[in-house]
Amino acid sequence: MDKYIEALRQERDQVSKDVRRGIIPKRVPVRDSLSLELLIEYAGKDLLTTQYHYNYEECVEIMEKAQEIVRGDNFGAAFARNPVAAMLIKGKTNYMSKSGFIQHPETCVMEEDEYDELIADPETFIGEKIIPRKAGMYSVSPMTFAVSYLRNYLANLDQNTVLTSASRYIQEKYGYPMGGSTGSMTGVPFDEIADQYRGFRNITIDMKRQPQKVLDAMEALMPKNIAIQMPAKIDEFTTSSIMTHMGVFLNTKDFEKFYWPNFAKLCHIAGERGMHMYIFCEGDWTRFLDHLYDLPAGCQFAFEYGDPQKVKDKLGKKHIVGGFYPVTLLRNGTKQECLDKAKELIDILAPGGNFMWSYDKQALSLADINIDNYIAVQEYVLNNTNYANAGQKASGEFDFVNFQDTVKHYLKDYPEFKSKHDLPFEEFIQDYPVPAERVIPYMREAYEKYVSLVPYPKFGM
Fold first, then answer.
1. pTM above 0.90, yes or no
2. How far is CA 27 from each of CA 215, 315, 328, 348, rounded to the nearest angstrom?
3. How far is 31 from 28, CA to CA, in rounded Å?
């Protein structure tokens, strides 16, 4: 293996691990902010048609070409919305434009009088009511539902396999960290109901007309969301992620009543399990910095908008901060204006450590940025953020490795989630003939493998 490539991989890996341990790194870790769609365009491919026929060779070609412009410490292009999977079920929640960009319009697939059903049995309600309403092929007949669901699953599996394999090839070849810790993603109950079930306009009406129903529904979703949050294994760097959405659109009173309680509990429960949180703070969270401070030490925040100085002052000694850099400036600003903004943010956020460089949002299209400006900013950050005191403890009295004393214990307040549909093997096999006792371990292994591969749907995606 090329010694330079391996040394580059180790440096890229180490700077991120140091920050996550609360240690001053050699330099600020740098994240890219380029979508797979943008990389397809940059490679000169037809965005519209490429998304309908991903194959390994073409994805490697796209990702190879991307190395001309990416500069960050991690590379991964293993996620993209899947138009083939959506087509096979006649999906109603994602639409592709003529230019090839997939959009998610606001939808409502739950009626105002159905809260009691959601509260009584969230898993069954999602699987039998929400999911069928989101796709034309799911409402034809039970058999059509089953066949279409399988086709959708296989289409997603194929795409994910291709993108993941191509990403791993690039990581190996160009010295990016590979493998690493497992992670998980879960959802804030309020966002789940607003985004996926009722729509934002309707849930704001529900909050006024039947507030207790909304609160009870969010609590009913918690055991499921807690279960989804748990990865297969946990180590020092395992992260649970939450992409916030609706919180900042609420007034402070409603935020504290409807949004924050479950959100905070999920973050503390992750801490109880030994995981740190990665939280994308959509919108401007300046009003809620005191709330964010109260989360377990070592949370990683990526902010879209807000006052960087206030964020650094309030959160920078207990948590890891990043974001803020406006992607729109990369399109509209001069090179010098782009570099000046980078310097401004570095001067505010980098001192004392606990900082990772990232942008306010992902660039989705080549039209979103000037590539030369983007490269200039990324290289400026890489070359001008070396720490003189690398290896020392980051500012603040909080230990990111042994952070348990900052965790509040909520896990005990919720029952363990037990699926009514993905039964434990012993229950599943009760009414099925077992040919011989010695085959039971193999039957169990096979059952658990395929239930894990294709679980009963728990989110209304």
1. yes
2. 45, 20, 26, 15
3. 10
